[in-house]
């Protein structure tokens, strides 16, 4: 199943879109929701949630820029049969993950 980005309509410039526009394409690559992931800019060092990035696009792909210095942090391009992800402008990407459940006291982790 492919996800097509929901492109805002109106006269706003593409640079005025936020990082939520990347939710669909990124969900094809990652099982966790990346909109609350924190990306650190390699240029200025600012840390922002992916949802706060300034996004250009959607064709030929989406480009997420740092809201502080406007450097390109990530790019996502969806072709017919591939997804390209470029994180070259990001120093790091910290993704919140659910805490694994502890085994119940009566359950055995060894096969019988």
Set out the fold topology:
Layout: E1 17-18, H1 23-27, E2 38-41, E3 47-49, E4 54-56, E5 62-65, E6 72-78, E7 83-86, E8 90-94
Antiparallel strand pairs: 1-4, 2-3, 2-8, 4-5, 5-6, 6-7
Mean pLDDT: 80
Tell me roughly what share of residues is in helical segments.
under 10%
SS elements, strand count? 8
Strand order of the largest sheet: 1-4-5-6-7
The computed structural class is: mainly beta
Summarize the biggest pleated sheet: 5 strands, antiparallel
Beta-strand portion reads: 25-35%
Number of helices: 1
Rounded to an integer in angstroms, the radius of gyration calculated over CA atoms is 17 Å
Whole-Å distance between the termini?
39 Å
List SSEs in N-to-C order. EHEEEEEEE
- Uncertain spans: 1-12
User: From the structure provided, what is the oligomeric state, counting identical versus distinct chains?
Assistant: single chain
Morphology call:
globular
Concise description?
With 112 residues, the protein is mainly beta.
What does this structure look like?
- With 112 residues, the protein is mainly beta.
- The protein is 4% helix and 29% strand.
- The protein has one helix and eight strands.
- A five-stranded antiparallel sheet has the order 1-4-5-6-7, with no helix packed on it. A three-stranded antiparallel sheet has the order 3-2-8, with no helix packed on it.
- It is globular and about 50 Å long.
- The model is unreliable at 1-12 (pLDDT under 50).
